[in-house]
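During data preparation, a discrete fold description was generated, as reproduced here:
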Amino acid sequence: GVHPSSVTKMVQKLDKKNYLIYEKYRGLMLTPKGKKTGKHFVYRHDLLEELFRIIGVDEDKIYEEVEGIEHHLSLETVDRISDLVEYFKSDENRIKDLKAIQLKNEEQEA
């Protein structure tokens, strides 16, 4: 688990960087900067989950896989992934073509 003192230190650090407002014994509140950053984190996570579904990652592995990489991606990379997801979603045949390639490759491996 996480020690309460570690949580307090991180909350104080986020307060200092203007992501939230922290008042001892009263709690905390996200600032507009904190809300924007939080929304970006959720968007990035959801986008990666969507990409992994499109490319056929097993559903039971998606969350763990996303957690493993999402914090290492730049904003530019996330934008390019968004473009790729949009590319696949804009024409269902592209997803079907990808599945056909995957099936062919799996048959060749067997």
